[in-house]
Amino acid sequence: MFVTTLLTGFIISSITVGFILLIKKLFQSQLSAKWQYNLWYLLLAALVIPFIPAHFLPAGNLFHSFTGPSSEGSTASINTAAPESGGTNTNWMQDFSVTVTQTNTDLFNGIAGGIWIAGALVFTGLSIHAWLKLKGIRKSISAVENKAILDLFKRAKQQLNISKNISLGVSDEVHSPLTFGLRKTFVVLPANFEEWLSEDDIRHIFLHELNHYKYKDIPTNYLMVFFQIIYWFNPLIWIAFKEMRLDREIACDYAVLLSLDDKNHKKYGNTIIHFIDKSSSPPYNKLANQLNGSKKQIKKRIVEIASFQADSKLQRAKSMGIFLLVGLFVITQIPFASVMANDNNRYTSFKPEQTNEEDLSSYFQNYEGSFVLYDMQKDAYHIYNEDQSTLRISPDSTYKIYSALFGLEENIITTEQSTIEWDGTEQPYDQWNQDQNLETALNRSVNWYFQQLDQKLGANSIQSYLSRIHYGNQDISDRTNPYWLESTLKISPVEQVELLQELYTNRFDFQEEHIQAVKEALQMDQKDGAALYGKTGTGNVNGKDINGWFVGFVETETNTYFFATNVQDEDNASGSIATEITLAILKDKQIYEE
């Protein structure tokens, strides 16, 4: 999940940087200096998107999720071991499964995460060093005592409508004016500045540094450093922030020029030139705003100052329009982040009026899992492990309930003739090596039967049906394995129960005889006026049973109960175990007794 977030961040940040640089190049003459700088704030907004919690992002299926178990390079292989009975009645629906081979990505994720942490620690250390340098400068500051200089500073503050107390000082630790400090702000001048700077130079410096304060450039510095630590691995972020700092200085120069009369524009440029020889000493501190920069940056600033013209109303309008265009572009990346953030792997629409949370941990023992029960008469849910009950996971063979229904609806099989001939390919279980009809195929969980249904249905029809019934994440993108077998298709236990209820009441207007045929094929037992219907599913990856399902419903004389049980483990979680747990719970609730 963390690596996915970093990947999402890399993609979104790279696209946004590229788009902003393109817009700046295409519309350079239409964009004012202020709005060229403001565009970079949209980058800061885009950098937050990958870290927004999934439940705050709008759900969407614009893209297939990249975060599910990888199907690339996976191959389906047969698990020739006999199915575990788990103590269940072998006359009931049998728990057959095959194994899927998948590459374990945990090692890669661990290495990638470790590299990111190491890089983040290095750049955090550099940022702490920069902060300590500022702290050292702060200790070296001496107060300015020259009344004329203090009056100049006061008038500059008044000109910019700044009322906050800002400390003015000098330090032999700096060679260029700088402004820093979040809680207490300092404007610091080099020692002996009065010897080589005129009164006009000093006034211009004050206006420049105070404009940095006025436009909140100090907290922006900290934001940029924070994001540079997070995105240290993306060179485009380093390029973007370098451009952002230059655009900020140019925007600040323009703000100063707007406050000066025309005859002082050249003098302001000369003030900047005074510091060109000091552009490499000391090293630039990213937590402070400094008047100078590299010689290349100063040269560009001088060119901009020389060609300065106040913005016209038309240019301001164009600038705002371009800004809104880029803002819209940033917003359009949110659905992409939603899918990448695994939002599609959790069911977020479950909001029943009556939900009773229960502690059923004693039934699950050492298994991670959940149990969902819906009482149709009371319109109430009983749930164990609510967080797990909304997590989407592979349905495995429980999906065959709906595969059968789709095949009936498309007349691939019918209620009178549902037999598909076995093609002679040797299967792992003797029960699979023969012709199958709907009832035997569901009872024995015969993979090849439902794979043939899928082939005849076609991907478009399957996708259409899954959308119609809102089946889980509706992702059938895996073309190498059965998409329902520890692959791309996923569904939560809550959704299993909701779908069974909708199937039972035929909410989606399938042919009634087809609903009845599937229902009859799911019947497992009948006793004392109660009938049990269900389907198991086992997910076997690399030879280990990691995922077990038992879903179904119980019809009594007065009520119907729908249930879904899921268990997960590293190597011992099967449909048989899920069945045992379910039957024990149903018995203790006096719903069904085996």
What is the gist of this entry?
With 594 residues, the chain is α+β, with helices and mostly antiparallel strands. The chain has helices at residues 2-26, 33-48, 106-140, 147-159, 199-214, 217-230, 235-258, 265-273, 295-306, 313-331, 334-340, 361-364, 386-389, 400-409, 438-444, 447-457, 459-469, 493-504, 512-522, 575-588, and strands spanning 75-77, 99-101, 142-143, 167-171, 178-180, 186-190, 289-290, 355-357, 368-375, 380-384, 523-527, 530-541, 544-555, 560-568, 572-573. The longest helix is centred in the first third of the chain and has 35 residues, at 106-140.
Shape: elongated
Task: Enumerate the spans where pLDDT stays under 50 for 5 or more consecutive residues.
Answer: 59-91
Helix content: 40-55%
Radius of gyration: 34 Å
- Which structural class do the helices and strands define? alpha+beta
Give the topology.
Blueprint: H1 2-26, H2 33-48, E1 75-77, E2 99-101, H3 106-140, E3 142-143, H4 147-159, E4 167-171, E5 178-180, E6 186-190, H5 199-214, H6 217-230, H7 235-258, H8 265-273, E7 289-290, H9 295-306, H10 313-331, H11 334-340, E8 355-357, H12 361-364, E9 368-375, E10 380-384, H13 386-389, H14 400-409, H15 438-444, H16 447-457, H17 459-469, H18 493-504, H19 512-522, E11 523-527, E12 530-541, E13 544-555, E14 560-568, E15 572-573, H20 575-588
Parallel strand pairs: 2-12, 4-6, 8-10, 13-15
Antiparallel strand pairs: 1-2, 3-4, 5-6, 5-7, 9-10, 9-14, 11-12, 12-13, 13-14
Helix pairs in contact: 1-2, 1-10, 2-7, 2-10, 3-6, 4-5, 5-7, 5-8, 7-9, 8-9, 14-16, 14-19, 15-19
